[in-house]
Amino acid sequence: GARRDRATNIKSASKSIVSALVGIAIAEGTLDSVRQPIATFFPRELGSDADPRARAITIEDLLSMRAGLASTSFDGYGAWVRSPNWVRYALTRPIVAEPGGRMLYSTGSSHLLSAILTKAAKTTTRAYAQRELGAPLGITIPSWARDPQGYDFGGNEMFFTARDMLKFGELYRRRGQHNGKQLIPESWIDKAWGEYTTSPYNGHHYGYHWWTREYARVKVHFAWGYGGQFIFVIPARQLV
């Protein structure tokens, strides 16, 4: 029943959209930098007795899946999305690795970025995405799931058509430019495609919510969502 004009749930490929929004927010001064500690956004959720290592987690740690918090993906996903407060639940998971250390893939990290964007931009993640990416690209981004506190689900459940996914991939292939306008800083593209860590499960490298690996000696950057939701960007072949 799929049609080219019908949006579908792109699952964790949503994470690469969130990454772009963070880069835009930093460029326009809505967020300070990737080094900004996230604790200042969540004083109530963390509480006064939080692990000091949790207070040291930065935006970059979330983007590169190196927050050190126990994962809310895989076996931990169900309990997380059934919890009454997704932000608090993700933030108060046990610290199982040093922040900035090894990779721990967790959709909760992406959701924290959505909450941070909402607080910093004073608008919903969807509204921010529509203003900064959707409108310039000619995309209408439908509403998607929210948590019990009303934060748009970060890192899952966004809906795009295949052609809209192509537009987003082309934006990255063209180094953040669309119709002569720089929508995403070129420097952010390089950072997003950096190789900060490696998945222990598949050997792929991970940047800021983008995956990278080599095929036939050519680097391929990709957004990856459950069920085969992919955006592959291959600059050396001028291909998306």
Adjacency order of strands in the biggest sheet: 5-6-7-8-9
For the residues shown, what is the average pLDDT?
97
How many angstroms does the end-to-end distance come to? 24 Å
Please summarize the sheet with the most strands.
5 strands, antiparallel
Number of helices: 10
Rg over C-alpha atoms, rounded to the nearest angstrom: 17 Å
What is the approximate shape? globular
According to DSSP, the number of beta strands is: 9
Q: Report the order of strands and helices.
A: EHHHHHHHHEHEEHEEEEE
Helix content bin = 25-40%
Can you characterise this structure?
40% of the residues are buried. Strand 3 (177-178) and strand 4 (181-182) form a beta hairpin. The mean pLDDT is 97. With 240 residues, the protein is α+β, with helices and mostly antiparallel strands. Helix 1 runs parallel beside helix 7 and helix 1 packs across helix 8. Helices cover 36% and strands 12% of the residues. The protein has helices at 14-27, 43-46, 52-55, 59-63, 77-82, 86-91, 107-121, 125-137, 162-173, 186-192; strands at 8-9, 159-160, 177-178, 181-182, 197-198, 205-206, 211-215, 218-225, 229-233. The strands form three sheets. It has a five-stranded antiparallel sheet. A two-stranded antiparallel ribbon has the order 1-2. A two-stranded antiparallel sheet has the order 3-4. It is globular.
